Amino acid sequence: MVPQDKDKESLTELSALGLSGYSVKTMAEVFKTNEDGFKTETYALLDSFEIAEALIETLPDHDYYRVQSVWVLTNGSQGFVLSTVGHPFEASSVIKEHEALAHIKDAAIAKLSPATRKILSFNL
User: pTM, whole model, 2 decimals?
Assistant: First the structure.
């Protein structure tokens, strides 16, 4: 397989980093698909598969998002997906679990009526 221009740019970016502080690990990749079900872009990388699935439920057009386990070269804040067919070395942000959980909680609370929020003591 011949690297595409996007792949070459990502590899150049990766090679310029230096690997101090980076490690390879498996992560949950949340990615968007097109109408045919093919991956179009990475939305987020998370440590927890369960949180990734919950995060998808909060996204607009959530039916177009999927989660899969991938190998990632990461320093904890930036990650490079190493093992996705058709998208090698794609750079993405690593989302911390507490950030994803806060987003999921806010999305769930936003769905509640004012009366329900009052009963549950969510006076937001």
Answer: 0.65
